[in-house]
Every structure is written in C-alpha cells, then in structure tokens.
C-alpha cells in the first residue's frame, strides 16, 4: 500500500469513528435528567407514588402527574398541623373550596405531565388526597421533620 492510500484509509477510519461518536452523543443527549423530570411524588391512575414521603422543614415537595388522568393535591384540613397553612393545587384556601371548585370544574386539576409543588415550613404530618380519586384510595402523607422557623409555606403549579 502506498503512502497516499494509507493516508486516505486513516482519514476514512477517523471519519467513521467521528461519525459513531456523534451518533452516540446524540442518542445519549435525551438520557440526561432535567428539572422537568425531577419530582418527589408521582400520580398514577389512582395512587400517589410513593404514598408517603419524609422531608425536612423548609423543603419543597414536587408532585408530577405521571398518568393520563387529571388529579388534584388537596390537604385534609383536619389532618395537617394546626400552625400549618392549608395547601391545594389551584391555590384554594380551604378543603371545602377545593372540593367545590373541582365539582364545578373551575380549577385545581393537574393535567398529565404537569407539576404542583408546596414548601413545608411547619413540622408534623400532612395527609392529602386527590379529589376525583379519593373514593378509590388516592391519599398520601408528607412527614415534615425538624424545627419550624417562620411558620409559613408556599406552593406553585408548573408545567
């Protein structure tokens, strides 16, 4: 093999290897985790998964609707710490308001692929449920450990 053929052969091998490297990089690009993929509790057809999570005071819990059904995250008003702020997807100020809004089809529903989050500032146990699937046992618990700093909380809904 003469010098010209060896150089052409080496360049062809480099092109093949470079092409394979590009294909591998493109196929792995979709495998990285993004903030959209991160959540603490998934919502399947009729269950929160996992049904119970434990966090520290000041931590945010993110729920993600991983099913094709619409869901809510609604605190049981009588099953959260006395000093804690009520929370519900849709931003309702009471359990009754959240139930009424769902029944009147005016808000609170988390569509497939959407997130809802709430930051817990008061230690204790928080029981919550999905309004349309409560009768099917779609209930969950957040246990918040640690000491309360301000006694406030916040929540957000995102896509």
Automatic annotation (TrEMBL):
Compartments in which it is found: Membrane
Main location: membrane
An example Gene Ontology molecular-function term: copper ion binding
Keyword check for Nucleus: no
Pfam families: Copper-bind
Cross-referenced InterPro entries: BlueCu_1, BlueCu_1_BS, Cupredoxin, TAT_signal
Keyword line: Copper, Electron transport, Membrane, Metal-binding, Transport
One cellular component term from this protein's GO annotations in UniProt: membrane
Domain (Blue (type 1) copper): residue spans on this chain: 38-145
Keyword Transport part of the UniProt annotation: yes
Descriptive protein name: Plastocyanin
